[in-house]
Amino acid sequence: MTSENNVTVRFAPSPTGRLHVGNTRTALVNWLYARKAGGTFLLRMDDTDDERSTEEYATGIEEDLTWLGLTWDRFARQSDRLERYDAAVEKLKASGRLYPCYETQDELGLKRKAQLSAGGPPVYDRAALKLSDAEKAEKEASGIQPHWRFLLLHEEERWTDLVRGESHYHMTSLSDPVLLRADGRPIYTLASVVDDIELGVTHILRGEDHLTNSAAQMQLFKALGAEPPVMGHLSLLTDVEGQGLSKRLGSLSLEQLRADGLEAMAVNTLLAKIGTSDPVEPRQRIEQLVEDFDISKFSRATPGFDPAELEALNAKILHETDFALVSERLAGLGIGGGEAFWLAVRGNLEKLADAALWWQVCEGEVDPLIEDADYAAAAAQHLPAEPWDTDTWRSWADTVKAETGRKGKQLFMPLREAVTGQSRGPDMADLLPLIPRGKVLARLQGQRA
Length: 449
Hints:
Layout: E1 8-11, H1 21-37, E2 40-45, H2 55-68, E3 74-77, H3 82-94, E4 98-101, H4 105-117, H5 133-141, E5 147-150, E6 156-161, E7 165-170, E8 178-180, H6 188-198, E9 203-207, H7 211-223, E10 230-234, H8 254-259, H9 264-273, H10 286-292, H11 307-320, H12 327-332, H13 338-345, H14 355-363, H15 373-381, H16 392-404, H17 409-420, H18 428-431, H19 437-444
Parallel strand pairs: 1-2, 2-3, 9-10
Antiparallel strand pairs: 4-5, 5-8, 6-7
C-alpha cells in the first residue's frame, strides 16, 4: 500500500480545447489530494492526437491552472515519450496480449449492428485471432495495415474505489481495446498506462465515465508488470437542467469565467465542495480548501453546477476578502484609496471590477440625482468642514434633520443620490470621508463633479 508521503497524482488533459468546470474539478481534486498528503502533482499533456492537439490549447490549459493556483510539481508531454510506447507495444506483442486486427470501421460497424439486432452486447468477436499467418500476410500485401487490440482476460476486476467503495467489472462485457492505430499511433489507453507506470503515479482520480476504461487498464498495468494505482471515480457534473457538461461549452470555460470577472477562489471553492457533504462557504485562500479536503466526503450522487451559485459565492468571497489579497489587482485597475476604500465598498461588490464605480464616485465625476434642489441647497449650507471621519455623515444628517424636519428615507436618500449619483451602495458613513468636500458641495449644487 502506498504511504501518504509517496502519493503521486496526475492531471492529464488533452490539449484539444480549453478547460471547463468539469475537467477543472478533476484537476482541483487531484491537486487537493496531493497537497493534503504532502505528495506530488503531475501535469501531463496527453497530446498524441496530433490532428486536434495544439500548442495554443496546451498553453491555455497551463494559464487556466496557474490562475486557479494549481501549481504542478512535475510536467510531462506524451509527444516526448513515443519511444516508450513503442517499447511497451513490443513487450505486449511478445507476450501474446497484443494482436493485429484488419477490419475496417465500416466492417466493425456492421458487426456491432448485427450484435445489437440479435439482442447481444456490441463486443468485438475476436475474429482476428482466427486468422492464419498466411491470411494476415495476404491482407497486408493488399495494403491493409492492422490496428492492434489488447487481449483481455475474461475475468472480473475488483478494486476498492476511493469514492465508490468496493467496485467490480467483468471483462466479458467489454471489447478488447485498441491500443495502436493502423498508422502506428498509440491510443490513450496504452500511453496513459505506460506513463502512469514510468512516472510513478500512485493514485488516479477521474470521472466515473472512465470506469470501464479503468477496468481494462488494470489488466494492462498487470500485463506490463506493474501494480495498478489506487483508483477513485468522481460523479460527473451536470448543468442545472441535468445535462452533461462539454469542454466545448464556452460559457463554462475557465477562460470565459476569468474574462467575466469571477474570482479564482470562487471557482475553486465551489468545485471543491460541490458533490461533497461539506457546505459551500466562502474561502479566501486555497490552503483553507486543503485543510478541509477529504476524498471520502465525495458522494456518488450527481452534482449540478449552477452558474448563479458561483456568482453568489463570488460576491460573498469579495465581501470577506482582505485588502492585502486584492491591493495589486485594484492598482492594476487604476483604483486607489487604500484599505479604507476597500473596506468601505467591498460589501457592495459582485465582482472586483465593480469597485471602479465607487472609485469614480470618490475621485471622478458623477452626475448627481437631485429631485428637490431646495433641499439639496439647504443640506449644502450645513456641510461640515474637513477633515471628515466616520461620524461626519451622522452629524451632518442630524443637522439637516433639525433644519428641515425630514427623517428616515426622506432625509437620507436625497443626500445619498446627490453625493453619489446612486440610489444604493456602501454605508455613507464609510464612503463620505473618501470624497473630497469640494466634490460633495458641487454635486449638492447640481453640478457634475
